[in-house]
Design goal:
This protein has 152 residues and is mainly α. It has 1 helix and no strands. The chain starts with a helix and ends in a 23-residue tail after the last helix.
């Protein structure tokens, strides 16, 4: 009977230990479940963050393409401006040559006109001095002008 009692006490103690182990296991399972849930939430947040990063990378890629297109347009505009500048420089050279030519022609024309002005001035002086003894009142108007300046 003593052995049975000892065995019963050991069984009761073992049952209590088993019950404690089962309770502890349940708590550990609940803690593990909470950790799994937290890990799941963290994974979900990571997935969302990766999706956001993917979206941002897409936007960066689109912006880079847009900037690349803009840079191409700027390069084309600079090339066109360079061409126009070169054309303008050539036109300025042509205009300078034309101005020099016009100046030379103006000098030549002024020299040619000086003859007429001198002859015209002499004719004015003669008119102001009065008619010469050989001239009569029948002389037509403008007859005193040189033939190159005569009025028709």
């Amino acid at each position: 009977a003593g052995e049975v009692r000892t065995l019963a006490q050991r069984s009761a103690t073992a049952a209590k230990e088993i019950k404690g182990l089962i309770g502890e296991s349940g708590q550990r399972i609940e803690a593990g479940q909470a950790l799994v849930e937290r890990a799941g939430q963290t994974m979900q947040e990571i997935v969302q963050a990766v999706a956001r990063v993917t979206d941002i990378m897409g936007e960066i890629s689109a912006a880079s393409e847009e900037q690349s297109g803009g840079i191409e347009q700027v390069n084309r505009a600079i090339t066109q401006m360079d061409e126009v500048t070169q054309q303008n420089a050539a036109l300025v050279e042509e205009a300078a040559a034309a101005a020099a030519s016009l100046e030379a022609q103006a000098d030549a024309l002024a020299a040619a006109m000086a003859v007429f002005l001198i002859e015209g001035r002499q004719a004015q002086l003669e008119v102001q001095a009065g008619p010469r003894h050989s001239e009569t009142a029948d002389t037509p108007a403008g007859a005193w002008l040189p033939s190159s300046m005569a009025v028709a």
